[in-house]
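Q: Is it fine to ask for two folds in a single conversation?
A: Yes, each is treated on its own. Send the first.
Q: Here.
A: Result:
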Amino acid sequence: MNRIFRIKSSFQNRKSDMIWNTASGVIDASQSILLLSLITRICGLQDAGIFSISYSISILMLTISRYGMRNYQVTDIEEKYDFEVYFSSRVVTTIAMMIASIARIAFNYVYRDFSVYKSLVVLLVCTLKSIDGIEDVFHARLQQKKKLAVAAKAKTLRLLLTLIVQTISLLVIKNLVGAISLSILVSTFFLFFSLREICDKEMFAKLKFRFSGVSELLYICFPLFEARFLSIYISNIPKYSIDTQMDDIVQACYGFIFTPVYIVNVVGQFIFQPVLVDMAESWAQRKYKEYLCIILKLISAVDVLTLVGICGCYVLGIPFLSWFYHVDLSLYKVELLLFMLAGGFLATVTIWNMCLTIMRNQKVLLYGYGIVVLFEKVAADYIIKKYGLQGATWLYLVSIFSLCMILGIAVVVIIKRKKRSLD
């Protein structure tokens, strides 16, 4: 069975890391998009709207499980905390994720008129996403040991299998609850199967829960969790306002044209992962020119991808999405282009997050995200009630651009101060 996950080249082969990590990123990004299209055609726009808001809530809840710890764990080169501590902390955060999910569903059921059906769909999607949270701590360990290609291959196969099961289930039983329930079972089974194949005996020996070190690790990583949580929350605030001010059909249309932001962000994160260890080593060894060179290359790549994406969306975006989702989206061309631009800013924000984590200045994230969330939360209901979906688009773009500028300035200032201290 090990042959399934074997990478022919060396574990340190950058090409394998990039190929498999990008593959898992593409499937992760396209999974919800493909399902949304399928649900629209089979179950209708209302179910598509329910799935869209459910998926948004599940992504927010997933940040509780992951706790923004992946980059910190991978760049913990000196292993200040061993794998047992990281695993124990993930157990705590995943339990917290499910408790928070249930609390959020209960609140929406009582105060926002969520139906039993809608509440059940949200719970199932959150449960499915919790599997990603558990998997992540094992894959971070493999990446830390320069076995990213192995981890990414396992994730690619699991996501692909889950997507196939969901697709076939929807086509056969035509029921959203049944399809998600079946995919939870299959995804859980494959996770255990893959971990047994790719994890060594040392990693399994440390699968013991212990309290020592967990609270300290959670405290240190709290700014990273807060940044990731608020990053998703910034994306979701317009959706929450739409959910209260408008209906599930408008929610579905917003989800359709929000597609570029999600794709650029998810794929970007997976493309960035292979260079994370190199960046950490460059910073630790005080090779600041090399560190800056990597940052500039990443930003250049984002700029090129964003420009290509905007041009592609201008020519083919609306016709393709209208066909793909089986809905006329011709009125939303400007909004689609604005979302594509926002996707580029969001990918750049991810780079700044990586930099601040590596430089161990993650507390800066608290202030940047806090300011932007406060602005967006205060403005959301008024803007969306008055300007509708177009207002939601502009609100998101302005929020992400502001965050990009704040964090970018912080990174530049910290690097300059560090270089001056050595001169």
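Q: Second one now.
A: Result:
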Amino acid sequence: MSTKSKRPEEIMQILNSRTKDAKYFLNLDALASSQNWSANGFHKQIDNLSYLCDLIQEENKIIKFLLDSVESYNQPPVVKSPITNSKPILGIDLGTSRSTVGYYKINARGRSELEIVANQKGSRSNPSVICIYKNRIYFGDEAIKISSKCPENLIYDSKRMLGHKYNDNFIQYMKKYWTFKTTESQNGGILIEVEKRYYQPYEISSMILIELMKLANDHLKEKTNQAIITVPAYFTKEQREETKKAANAAGIKLLDLVEEPKAATFCYGFKTEDVQNAQKSRDIVVYDFGGGTLDVSYVEIKGNSFNVLCMDGDPFIGGQDFTNCIFEYISPEVDKVCKSNWRDDIRFVSYVKNQCDEAKIYLSDQDDYDFEFDIPPKLQKNDSVFELNITRKQFENAARNLFDRCMNPVSNVLKKVNRDPRKIDG
């Protein structure tokens, strides 16, 4: 008999049908005890009773199966591991600005467990940066710290470079914000120059992946190389291939690439109380705004079923663009107190960009922000200190185009699905 779980209404239909058969033979048994039967009739009834015994035995098996089916139907789904051994599977969110690693493992009861791994500082996310200093590779917060000695060796935005050519308009636009050196490869790709060595973007991403794997393995106190990596929904074929190359270079056995909005949907869905309610449907919009990309998805959740109805996004906008916007906004003021070549001083530019990033975060929930920092003597024109107050309103006006671009995918998704926005649950 099939072991496929059946719905309760299907189970009741089977039970009712079997019960009618059993009652028919039980009635024959009662008739035999109240009337005189001929020899042939008696033997015929014995055959019927024998069949009834077989039927009851079969019925017991059926009932046990049906009860198991009901229990299976009412229980949450058991996520089975795609591997045959007990090695943990790592989940890696390889972000533009920050990256995270968690692990997935089947426990003794056959169910899944998930934990996001914290770094030495206790943070569960790590800056997606690499600094190469004296041929040694530094990652995350350590890379930022060591970069004070060599700001031109701090490499970031490697995810935004994946799959692009050096002469792409987007790359040429981003170059003016990078404090590291880039050049064109023989096949038109991007090369990052650090300490007279050249690296392709996927090699920098692989360094980040290696460090995340180390972090997870140290936490687990066992070694695993199996992982799933998230990618933006609008990553091109070339960008996905570059991500796979990075995983391979990091020694990762890549089980799958999962689109970031889908991963966010699963996380939301399985944490809600209604996930096990197969009859209740929920409509949600997943707004995944990262450091370098934006994805928006409209998802219908019914029980543990997730149906992505529509996706839209912008692969060329992220949180770093708002940092760059503030940098451009204050630059004319910096020009007034600094010499014209201040943009050539990588150490100073890096410091100013960090101040702009801090301002962006501060203005998210505060009315204004005060810039105040020292100007290196060699760059001073009149003053030795730069001071400027920027209000939240000024920031919003300066970044109006970026805010509009952030809302366009939401409008597009709602138009495509033709759903009433008032019925969105989350």
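Q: Anything structural to flag on that second result?
A: Two points. Residues 178 and 404 are 25 Å apart (CA to CA). The first strand starts at residue 89 and ends at 93.
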